[in-house]
Amino acid sequence: MAACTLLHLLRRSRPVINSRTSLSSQFFHLASFSSSCKRHAFTLPDQSFPLPKKVPFKVSAHGRTWVDPYHWMRDTNNPAFVHHLHEENSYAEAFMADTIDVQSRMASEMKNRLPTNISSPPERWGPWLYYQNIPDGKEFPVLCRRLEPDKAGWAASVLDYVRGQTGKEEILLDWNEIAEHHGYVHVGTCRVSPNHRYLAYTIDINGSEWFKLQIKDLRTGCILPNLQAEGVVSLAWAQDSCTLFYTVADKNQRPFRVLCADVEAPNNSDGMNVFTESDSGFCVDITATKDGKFITVNSNSRTSSEEGITFSFLIRFQEAFCYFCEVETIFLKLCRFT
Prior knowledge:
By secondary structure, the chain is an alpha+beta fold. The protein is 24% helix and 33% strand. The protein contains 7 helices and 20 strands. The strands form 5 sheets. Strands 3, 4, 5, 6 and 7 form a 5-stranded antiparallel sheet that branches. It has a 5-stranded antiparallel sheet with strand order 16-17-18-19-20, with no helix packed on it. The longest helix has 21 residues, at 19-39. It is flat. The protein starts with a helix and ends with a strand.
């Protein structure tokens, strides 16, 4: 009974909505919004939108022929193409000139919502914790590590090296320093040697996607001058921490060859050829297993793959037994090479 009485009172106290008043109120708000937009309406720039020129060029493929008037824009070094890009950028800046303040405020607001220090979760490898972080105000990450042994035996094994620096952060590679020096940086891959002394990484400093191999001695902080290969794609360390396996690309940037080199050798500009993939339909990749006992050479295409395995403690790759497993859509073939 009390519930029915309360419901009756709520129904009686509900205000009656006048449809005419509601519609007029909505129209008033829409009119106000429209007038506000008119007051802040942007004006088109005085300059006209730059249209690229049309140069007739016939293209034939698959038994058909058509005209591509913009084929000339494939040549990015053409002065006419560069001039057209400058005209488009100039028009875009003029078109968005009245939003500069809004852009600045939005960028500032988004920046304030981001964390000041972005760091990846640390990954333990032996007595070390490896991680990356982006310092406050910087654009690129920094590769770091710190010593935190989980057993007393680990601390004893590296005591001569760290000398009481347990828990202290050590910067291995700073992308920002490289970018400030060269104006551009792209680090392809990084691999630390099993004894945690050397850092092998590939770097591109001009945007060509053609990576150069560099070896850094983490004890001295110096780059080893004896091995700096070009066009390197993937890396893998042997367990001796001196032998480095790496793949190089051809002129079409296809990884096709596996080389190995002793990073501590005085004269070692060219590595020893381990494997070459002559089929242009295959790309070669090299990795080390998680336990570090084996190194795999992977040759992959769209329809098949081959896997070569060797013991990582064997320095000379030719002396190891390699097992290649070729997986195709129809059959499975197991081959053995020496």
